[in-house]
Amino acid sequence: MSAPFVEIPEKEFVLPGTRTCAGCGLTLAYRYILKALGPDTIVTLPACCLTILHGIYPKTPIAINAVNNTFASTAASAAGLVAGLKALGKDKDFTVMAMAGDGGTFDMGIQALSGAAERQTDFIYVCYDNEAYMNTGVQRSSATPLGALTTTTPFLPKQQPKKDFLTIMEAHSPSYMATCCSAYPRDIYAKFRKAKEKKGTRFIHLAVPCPPGWGFPTSQTVRVGRLAVETGMVVLFEIDEGEFKLTGKSLTMARSGRKKPVVEYLKLQNRFAKMTDEQVEALQREVDSRWEKYLERSEP
Ligand SMILES: Cc1ncc(C[n+]2csc(CCOP(=O)(O)OP(=O)(O)O)c2C)c(N)n1
Ligand code: SF4
Ligand SMILES: [Mg+2]
């Protein structure tokens, strides 16, 4: 799939009046996710910035049905919704989506997600990744990259690399798996349309820049997201019934052989202000080695 030009419906499901921060990458992406999935979608979500976007009961700017669950049970809650819809004979009428942050997925939700994916439960699981526990004040998660400052790594930046969660999920053989980034809304829309048509467990990783947590101006969300992809920090791909393909900007980069150095991405964000030269080099090596592996798997 190479950056398809698709018509995006005008109907909005994220209405004005949200409580998320200015420049929030999650809010930007959610608009396109819901346009792709449509009104007959039920989302189940744990505490996270998405809960803030959904608002405080009884008011919400989000025009689809939602269930709030606890951290460890997002995928279990989705499995319950799927079973309930089946019992009512309505499973073909609704799309069930579980959506959680990186803390709620890489760390706290992994057990229920692994179980549901192994059973091939019929739902879409989305991990939106802002690379820390943002909702509670930017604590480190296992998705936080090497060298990032957070409020729990305030003086010495994080010393461990980001957990390779994509490999963990691929090992579950989901019927469809994709990565996307809020800076590329058409790519998001196309991948969620595709995921909606599939059966079984579908897993989507969504990279979402976060101005207050990453330390960049609210006007730069799209620029930071694009640089994440252009430097190979985030790689856009899909695995459809086991077949791997680079997509969108990552496919263009693979064909042109052009990839920017990670420092261009790092220098825009205060969270990387204390990285040593050695850490920048280590991160560049990590990104290059992962990129080479993706190129080997990709079409020539
Ligand atoms: C079991 C449990 N532990 C901690 C919390 C407090 N809490 C609420 S939101 C949140 C952060 C979640 O981080 P993430 O999943 O990455 O989503 P983000 O806030 O970054 O959008 C935490 C720790 C909670 N609600 N429940
Ligand atoms: S903290 Fe980050 S992810 Fe959360 S609402 Fe603000 S910009 Fe969005
Ligand atoms: Mg997070």
TrEMBL record:
Q: Per the record's keyword annotation, is Oxidoreductase included, yes or no?
A: yes
Q: What is this protein called?
A: Pyruvate synthase subunit beta
The source's domain of life comes to Bacteria
Keywords linked to the UniProt accession: Oxidoreductase, Pyruvate
Q: Which residues form the Thiamine pyrophosphate enzyme TPP-binding domain?
A: 66-205
GO process terms (BP): small molecule metabolic process
Q: Which GO terms describe its molecular function?
A: oxidoreductase activity; thiamine pyrophosphate binding
InterPro entries in the record: PorB-like, THDP-binding, TPP_enzyme_TPP-bd
